[in-house]
Amino acid sequence: MDKNVWIMKDKTKKSDKASGRRSFIKKSGIVLVGSSITYPTGILVTPTPAKTEQIKVGLIGCGGRGTGAASQALQADPNAVLTAMGDIFEDRLESSYSELVKIKGSQMKVDKANKFIGFDAYQKVIDSGVDVVLLTTPPAFRPAHLTAAINANKHTFCEKPVAVDAPGIRKVLAAAKMAKEKGLSIVSGFCYRHDNSNKATFGRILNGGVGEIKAATAFRNGGELWFKDRQPDWKEMTHQMRNWYYFNWLSGDFIVEQSVHSCDLLSWCMGDAVPIKAMGTGGRQVRVDKRYGNIYDHFTVEYQYPNDVKTYLFTRQQANTQGRNSVDVFGTEGNALINLYGKSEITGKEPWVFRGEKNDMFQTEHDELFASIRNGKPLNEGKRMAHSTMLAILGRMVGYTGQEISWEDAINSNDTMGPKIEEYDWNLNWPMTPIAVPGKTKFS
Ligand SMILES: NC(=O)c1ccc[n+]([C@@H]2O[C@H](COP(=O)([O-])OP(=O)(O)OC[C@H]3O[C@@H](n4cnc5c(N)ncnc54)[C@H](O)[C@@H]3O)[C@@H](O)[C@H]2O)c1
Fold it and tell me: Closest Cα to atom 2, ligand 1: which residue?
């Protein structure tokens, strides 16, 4: 890394320094696209339930995260009940159901008739009379599932990432706007935003705790992940749906599917402003076996903001390499280190360490969702979750092509990675696009 990247010229006036981060945002022309929480003023399309009234919950995507999210939803509110479940695989739905009965038996009210299997299961869950839906399938389905949920006036927990391509992001933005107008809650699975330590640390950063931000870096480095061996009776579609992570039309590639958390944290410290453009590298060095579909195993991305401010994402998934999940924020008056596996601290003019109460961020996001429904004060994280996901998609675009790409061009791209929701079928043979080659793969 070029040393000059870290030593950026401070063009700020003294008076601006005093008022900290907010004046930086104003001065640099960055537009705040969302605060941590937005409360819409629209008319509520669903009546606020009384404390004792049941809130019916439907789960769409009964895998690892879906099962966890459902148990957290039931934990969040004693009168929440799970009444419907949907998945494309019966075995996944049944194992999730058994697990949930063990953990939250008295709140499990899923009749046999309300267990839906197939690519249209999402709509059947939505139409089954639920108040809240939990969207926890692979991300390719999220824009269509979210749109259907908001169309049907459902409050939503929407796992990250929320799309795999720009047309999907635009769909999510439209759904988020509709939710705001209808007074429906959308809480995203960007769980780090619901962690007490992160809230306090980013809160200080955004209030000038490190002076003006000049740069930030995020690392998300890990090893190998799961793989499901192909069975003799599996069609190609079954194989890809069981191993969705390795097919970029379903997962968005690992930068979108997993490193998106780091993009979200970088976005948070930038006040949720969007960058001007990005540049990056990426490739497939270690995870080269055919069974790993068409995704990369490393990316490095530079995001450029107004006033020469830059953020950097370093991410890899390679076996036997050093793991790291952190964000460093470099300011004119100090630095912040956010160690997602450990403690966070600020050094410099006003040193600070988080000493507050720890919380379970996965539980808190559901506590906040259900409190918002009970209080009739909808929480809408829709725009923010879409923009954080778009940051990761932009990172994939620059990594795949080797070109500099502007935010404007990226978010307006019409490159659609998968089929339309109504086209999904077990006989579909959706072509796996060739592994991207920087310099040859074109941006579209
Ligand atoms: N916030 C977090 O920290 C966190 C942690 C884990 C996973 N996640 C997210 O949750 C999502 C799911 O991840 P997972 O680890 O649970 O994967 P998983 O494979 O365990 O679960 C996905 C489930 O969705 C089902 N499914 C696939 N397509 C479907 C469709 N069209 N309709 C209905 N069901 C469908 C699958 O059969 C499977 O049961 C991903 O987007 C992932 O990024 C977030």
Answer: 189
Q: How big is the CA angle at 63 (ends 60 and 256), to the nearest 5 degrees?
A: 85
Residues in contact with ligand 1 (CB, 6 Å cut-off):
60-66, 86-89, 92, 119, 121-122, 136-139, 141, 159-160, 189, 191, 257
Instruction: Please confirm whether the linkage preceding 161 is cis (ω < 30° from 0).
Output: yes
pLDDT bin (cut points 50, 70, 90) of residue 80 is very high
Ligand 1, atom nearest to 66 Cα: 16
Tokens of 69: 């999210």
Residue 390 pLDDT exceeds 60: yes
Residues with Cβ within 8 Å of 142's Cβ and at least 6 positions away in sequence, in order, are: 135, 158, 159, 161, 162, 163, 168, 172
Is residue 272 within 8 Å of 253, Cβ to Cβ?
no
Q: How far apart are the C-alpha atoms of 22 and 44, rounded to whole Å?
A: 32
Mean pLDDT of the chain: 90
pLDDT above 60 (res 412): yes
pTM: 0.91
| pLDDT score for 342 | 85
Higher-confidence position of 38 and 434: 434
| CA distances for 279 relative to 156, 194, 270, 389, 402, angstroms | 34, 30, 18, 17, 7
Instruction: Identify which of 159, 255, 295, 381 to mutate to test ligand 1's pocket (most ligand atoms within 8 A of the CB).
Output: 159
Residues 6 or more apart whose CB falls under 8 angstroms from that of 4 comprise none
Measuring from atom 1 of ligand 1, which residue has the nearest CA?
189
Q: Which two tokens stand for residue 154?
A: 């459902």
Nearest Cα to Cα of residue 322 among 331, 314, 330: 314
Closest CA to 67 of 184, 159, 172, 187: 159
